[in-house]
């Protein structure tokens, strides 16, 4: 019985075309022939071909096989899922090796033996099926990756500090070196990890991330290395671990500093051996993965304090990328603010802009929550703003104020007030007939802060309050 499948035979010798066609027609449903390799492109455009049997020499005096290589490359560029078997009368081992290296699946020497040719074509069809399946799986993986990774923002920065980061990413991404990304929360460590993956030769493969801080200790090995059905009470089915899921791609281990020592040992063994053994299995699985880790902890210090294994640190930090806090790259703020403004305007269907004054205020704030905080501030402002000119600072409580350059107990709340703040923002402050106790208190607290240039301790002392009582009032009045 004939098998489903379509094959194209390309040879300039009509006798060979007829002989091979007669042979293959007995076995395959569609057998097409051409004596002109320039027809290949059109034939492939017009119908689905799975296997091509391609002559290597189309000029009578040519024996180098170079033409065959030329057409082989063209075919694979047009449709990488096609499987090509090369044929030549001048079969020699070197040519066969070169043909396979160039992407051919097999090599048949003329004159051929029918059984050998048929065996080669059968294998080629099976190879074609695998290639198609692989292509389908790769597309599914890409789709899954996109779905799993959710929305990814662009990784932006024009400051020289960020330019250096991009530069290191570009260099390191091309290698398979393990990379450790450090930086405060919200500085973009996860975005950087994703950027590394996308710039690497693994970009078509999976990018699997795992927050080490949120994995329960009991399930750590199962989560990372997988488990076999029945390995423990809740193991109702086999489970593929994150390492195996990331095979051929990259794995991003976030919040690594939170990992207990016992789990660090298991992780180190997996990284050293590039092998994982699912819980309940005795068979190790080889994994080929790029490791990217991130932490906002000082791991060198954690090593000194005995909380982190030195050998694990050396294993993961072949290249270290430090993401600078946003307050150290203020010239990135307009770019980021504008980017998130456009993003959230689109999301919430608003047409809004930021005034130059507000942009200036954003650039002066010290952003303890880094880019994440900036993005949230802009989002809140877009949602809450009444007018098209986005009064970012007013909406989110940063308006017409200057900012202390250091972190403070309020997690970055603004403490210094401009001359005209009370006038513009709080009309009641100017009202001498307003005896409402809360408003009087608010006014007095503001005045004390202003008098002491935002120094909370001095203002609290002047008001006769403890620092705790002062902070409660700052919270209460959203100062
Ligand atoms: N350079 C940047 N360009 C654009 N967006 C950024 C940039 N850096 C960070 N962000 C945004 O800030 C938010 C936090 O980024 P990300 O999760 O990568 O930070 P992180 O350092 O991994 O934080 P954490 O340590 O808390 O996990 C995300 O919404 C991200 O898109």
TrEMBL record:
Coiled-coil regions listed: none
Keyword vocabulary terms for this entry: ATP-binding, DNA-binding, Nucleotide-binding, Phosphoprotein, Transcription, Transcription regulation
Residues found modified as 4-aspartylphosphate: 55
Response regulatory domain sequence ranges: 6-125
Superkingdom field: Bacteria
GO biological process: phosphorelay signal transduction system; regulation of DNA-templated transcription
Keyword Phosphoprotein carried by entry: yes
GO molecular function: ATP binding; sequence-specific DNA binding
Domain Sigma-54 factor interaction: 155-383
Phosphoprotein is among the record's keywords: yes
Name this polypeptide is given: Sigma-54-dependent Fis family transcriptional regulator
Source species: Cognaticolwellia beringensis
């Amino acid at each position: 019985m004939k098998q489903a499948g379509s094959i194209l035979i390309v040879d300039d010798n009509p006798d060979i075309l007829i002989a091979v066609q007669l042979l293959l027609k007995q076995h395959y449903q569609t057998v097409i022939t051409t004596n002109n390799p320039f027809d290949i492109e059109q034939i492939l455009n017009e119908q689905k071909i799975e296997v091509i049997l391609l002559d290597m020499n189309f000029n009578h005096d040519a024996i180098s096989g170079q033409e065959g290589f030329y057409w082989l490359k063209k075919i694979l560029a047009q449709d990488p899922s096609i499987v090509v078997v090369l044929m030549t009368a001048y079969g020699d081992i070197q040519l066969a090796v070169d043909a396979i290296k160039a992407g051919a699946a097999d090599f048949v020497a003329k004159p051929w033996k029918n059984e050998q040719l048929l065996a080669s074509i059968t294998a080629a069809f099976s190879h074609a099926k695998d290639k198609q399946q692989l292509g389908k799986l790769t597309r599914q993986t890409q789709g899954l990756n996109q779905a799993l990774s959710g929305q990814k923002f662009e990784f932006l920065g024009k400051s020289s500090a960020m330019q250096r980061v991009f530069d290191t990413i570009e260099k390191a991404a091309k290698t398979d070196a393990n990379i450790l990304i450090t930086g405060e929360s919200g500085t973009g460590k996860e975005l950087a990890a994703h950027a590394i993956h996308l710039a690497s030769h693994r970009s078509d493969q999976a990018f699997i991330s795992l927050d080490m801080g949120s994995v329960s200790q009991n399930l750590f090995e199962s989560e990372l290395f997988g488990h076999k059905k029945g390995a423990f009470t809740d193991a109702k089915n086999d489970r593929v671990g994150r390492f195996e899921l990331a095979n051929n791609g990259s794995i991003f281990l976030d919040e690594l500093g939170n990992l207990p020592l016992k789990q660090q040992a298991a992780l180190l063994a997996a990284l050293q051996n590039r092998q994982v053994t699912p819980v309940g299995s005795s068979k190790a699985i080889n994994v080929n993965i790029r490791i990217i880790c991130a932490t906002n902890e000082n791991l060198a210090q954690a090593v000194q304090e005995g909380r982190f294994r030195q050998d694990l640190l050396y294993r993961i930090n072949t290249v270290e990328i430090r993401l600078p806090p946003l307050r150290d790259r203020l010239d990135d703020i307009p770019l980021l603010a504008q980017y998130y403004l456009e993003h959230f305007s689109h999301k919430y269907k608003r047409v809004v802009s930021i005034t130059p004054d507000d942009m200036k205020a954003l650039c002066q704030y010290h952003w303890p929550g880094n880019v994440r905080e900036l993005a949230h501030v802009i989002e809140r402002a877009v949602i809450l703003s009444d007018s098209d000119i986005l009064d970012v600072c007013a909406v989110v409580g940063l308006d017409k104020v200057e900012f202390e350059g250091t972190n403070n107990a309020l997690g970055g709340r603004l403490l210094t007030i401009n001359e005209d703040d009370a006038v513009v923002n709080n009309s009641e402050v100017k009202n001498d007939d307003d005896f409402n106790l809360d408003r009087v208190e608010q006014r007095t607290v503001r005045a004390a802060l202003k008098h002491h240039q935002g120094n909370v301790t001095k203002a609290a002392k002047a008001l006769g309050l403890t620092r705790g009582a002062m902070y409660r009032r700052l919270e209460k009045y959203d100062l």
